[in-house]
Amino acid sequence: MLSTRDIKSDAISGLVVFLVALPLCLGIALGSKVDPISGIISGIIGGIVIGFISNSNVSVSGPAAGLIAIVVTSIETLGSFQIFLLAVVLAGVIQLILGYLKSGSLANFIPNSVIEGMLAGIGITIFLKQLPHAVGYDKDFEGDETFMQPDGETTFSEIFKALDYVSLGAILVCIVSVVLLLVWDKYKLQNKVKFLPGALVAVIVSIVLSSLFTGTSFEINQEHLVKLPTSIEEITKGLSSPDFSAFLNLKMWTVAFTIAIVASIETLLCVEAADKLDPQKRYTNPNLELKAQGIGNILSGLIGGLPMTSVVVRTSANVNAGAKTKLSAIIHGLLLLICVVTIPTILNLIPYATLAAVLLLIGYKLASPKLFKKFYSYGWNQFLPFIITVVGVVGIDLLKGVLLGLGSSIIFILRENLRKAYIYNNEKLEDGTIIKLHLAQEVSFLNKASIKESLMNIPENTTVIVDAKETEHIDLDVLEIIEDFIKIQSVDKNITVILKGIDENFKLKSNQKEYNNFTIKHKK
Fold first, then answer.
1. Where are the extended beta strands (E) located within 187-287?
2. pLDDT given for residue 417 in this prediction
3. Among 215, 396, 294, which residue's Cα sits nearest to residue 53?
4. Does the keyword Transcription apply (predicted)?
């Protein structure tokens, strides 16, 4: 049961997410080369429908920047936006099936270092991408997260290019907005001024400043303001429906499967990240999330919307604004629906610079220096996969960055397993040297080289204890190495071999009677 306090927090959070989501929906639609209303439709359904079905308390869904390249290429390949919409519908059906097959559980195998690295990488990307918008240069569309941009620039070169197109009015609006947001947050003014979050105050102040700048050297031009369709005719013009006659089109099915797989992966990653961001650390059922996303994409495709995923930018804005339950995501969707239909003219007065200020702070919080210090203190096994993920997300894109981080994590896991296959102890006693090889619970072929090297380097005239009493599995390759050592190396070096737990659990090929030039004991 929702408390009054939760409802108030969620209402404020929903309003903040609405302000962040509005330009992102428009920007992603622009980047996808479709009508702006397609992005808005996706945002509305992502908020209301997925928000209602999902059991995630803080995750927010909408059109995803990671799908832009797929959308543009697919529409060109299929030759029709209506055929593409059919692919979106079928992608939703596939996601629904994946949810019932419990495929969402795969998200549990992604290491924490990779998830945190993804969040930090997205934070840095958000921060860098907003700098041009903060100074009044909007050549790259809002919501782009890739390093190589559609305008031919990179994330870094775009920042330097923006310096040639500086708008003093935009810079001033951005600075004032950042100061307002910091003061509002530091002194918790939204608790004193009910239902008035810092982001809304910044937006109102920016609209006033933009109006005052008209006709002066600080004037903000129309290109730097939000652009929504202002009439019902413009809105309805962007509505489309799927072309079901293309159901047997193999290219369309390829697109459908591509969208389903990529959208599902991004959603699972973002939901894992959302659970990390959630102050209450609540668990989201990934299989239910896939079902919710499937239903959302089916509805979005049916009425002309873009495919959607759970999105970290909206989710982090939601958490930072103090969201308590999924009501905030639903409210953000309702606000998108109501405001786009009723007050688009007022929304079109908002400068991108003030929205950039909101996102700059969100980006900084996601990539806080404290996070880097924390993972550095964990050691290289955690820090390097974290950093590799960060660099990959910033320097390429989200999915490839996560894959790089996941690959590096696997390498470190294998390396750690190789090192921990056994414990090597060397004890010097009065009656000679005893070397103990205590094998781990699992000894695979990956441990073959290190065990072989250790056995080969055992000095002459020593006693070797190979202890496998706690071992549940030894690979055949390793057993053969132990047997070769017993039959050959230990004979040549006059080494006494004591086996514990080998013959009881793991049968050597040879019989003890074959060994006649050395002493072998079996200890139980």
1. none
2. 64
3. 294
4. no
C-alpha dihedral sign at 193, 195, 200, 205: negative
* C-beta atoms surrounding 80 within 10 Å: 15
- The whole-number pLDDT of residue 294 equals 98
Tokens standing for residue 458? 């055992």
Tell me: do 379 and 427 sit in the same domain. no
Report yes or no on 132 lying in a domain.
yes
Contact 222, 352 (CB under 8 A): no
For residue 506, the enclosing domain spans 420-523
Distance between CA 91 and CA 54 in Å, rounded?
A: 18
User: Both tokens of residue 487?
Assistant: 């039959």
Structure tokens at 174: 């951005």
Collect all residues with Cβ–Cβ distance below 8 Å to 243 and sequence separation of at least 6.
80, 82, 83, 85, 86
Distances (CA, A) of 319 to 42, 143, 202, 278: 21, 19, 19, 7
Backbone angles phi, psi at 30, to 5 degrees: -65, -45
For the chain, residues with pLDDT lower than 70 are 1, 188-195, 416-432, 503-524
pLDDT at position 524: 40
Q: Indicate if 185 and 278 belong to the same structural domain.
A: yes
Strand partners, 389: none
Look up the CATH number of the domain holding residue 428: 3.30.750.24
pTM of the predicted structure, to 2 decimals: 0.81
CA distance 21 to 44: 10
Note whether 376 and 490 are same-domain residues.
Answer: no
Number of domains in the chain: 2
Give the distance, in angstroms, between the CA of residue 476 and the centroid of all CA atoms in the same chain. 39
